[in-house]
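Why predict the complex rather than its parts? Because the way molecules touch one another can change local conformation, and only a joint prediction can capture that. The input here totals 554 residues.
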Amino acid sequence: MQTIMIVEDDPVIRQELAFLLENEDYQVLPVTDFETIPEQVRCACPDLVLLDLGLPGRDGLSLCASIRKTAPIIVVTSRTSALDELKALNLGSDDYVTKPYNIPILLARIKAVLRRNGSESTEPDTLKAAGLRLSLTKGTVTAAGASAELSRNELKILAHLMTHAGEIVSRADLIEALWDSRIYIDDNTLSVNVTRLRSKLEDLGMPDVIKTRRGMGYQL
Amino acid sequence: MTIREFILDRLGRIILRIAFLFTIAAFLLLTGTQPGIVTLLLIVCLLIFLLELLIDFWKKKKRLSELQAIMNELDQRYLFIECAPKPHTLYERKLFDLLRLSGKSMIEAVSNAQAAGREYREYVEQWVHEIKTPITAAKLICQNTDSDTRRRLSTELAQIDAHVERALFYARSESPEKDFIISRTELSTICDEAIQAHKNLLIQNGVRVETENLSELVYTDGKWTAFMLGQLLQNAARYHGEEPLITLAGKRLGRQVQLVVWDNGIGIPAHELPRVFDRGFTGKNGRNRGGSTGMGLYLCKRLADALEIGLQIQSTAGAGTCVTLTFPAEVNNN
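Output of the joint prediction:
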């Protein structure tokens, strides 16, 4: 499991961010003593530091340079000027996210930095659930030896359902997940895509694998 | 100053002098001086007067154009008196003293107003940064609750965020050159940032977004452009029609790149189009729907001007609106 250290002076954000990251299967180290941050980083050796720039009593930018040698950094701040961003990146931060951040984007950036720094366990290329095998890179779904090619939209829909196998996924959640993957569709288009996906799965001999839960959403 | 104006100005003095001359002439004639001598004297005196008048006109005119030249070169015209030359006459000196007093109070007023403006801008920026902490906290809390509450709250929070961003960019647009950095950016990066920022509003209004040819590269400040695009997306989401669709398309025009933002919304009446970029203009749609501030497009225009992005809007009431952003041509490195 990867360790993320949160350096953030606002207690509510610190707590909620820790909660969110724990749900994403990261080990979280919230920092509460802001005097000895470089030492704490050296001791704990986290895989990533989320660093807020507006810390009490010290300038987050100067911390960047001293932490950089031990761990990769994502600067998270409400300072939004282009100059601040440039300074942070020059001082060795790996990425720069401004508050209030879009949460899926923050998670994606965390993943990207971890991957770049080589500590990410490689992301699974295939998903397995309900008798289906989905290859994310090839964009094909396999069931009982037969396989079918999926369009980008169908792939994302099925991937989302498969990672939440067994749960009821509401249409709204599904749309939101698709928007996060840069597929900007509306409700009708979702219906069309789900219908197409179902007929492809039917051809593979899996007719009712995606169930409609009336008024609630879909379930794999 | 023309010679006519000058003579009219001096008319009293000229009449008085001529009257004086003729009185002397009459007196001399009465006391027995020969008429020929008197006439000669009159002519010589009149010529001297005329010469004096002309020299005086020439000097005054030269002086005035000297002062005018100083005024023309000044950036801040109210600083004129500080740069004025030494007064030539007593009258001029007194006049300059008065002007200096007036100028001084003007300079004071101007610098007070500038300081107040700057302080206010700084406060707004600081406030925006402070308000972002609780917004972030609220977003995170919201993320960790059930999905229905999350969605509803997220929309409201995104709304708050959009208002806050507008305030920030309004403060910044006062002196934009300080705050943007031009870099090479792909159109799709800008579009994705803007769409993500207004995701909730767009989804809630059932909008579908189609993108075309967004791999073009532009030279601009990504954040500012994403903010501008965000205003257009918000408008398109608010004033949508049946089956709302927004198309974002990149287009190459010689060395320039255009981003065309088209929606099939309710459109803008033709007579309102010329005023949509005015500050605080809300129009019929805005009034009917409420919640319009008339700031979005105004800010767009200001930022576009600062970034040298061309901004054109076309619309047909009932059919949709099309906004075209034309990015400046890339600088040739060769």
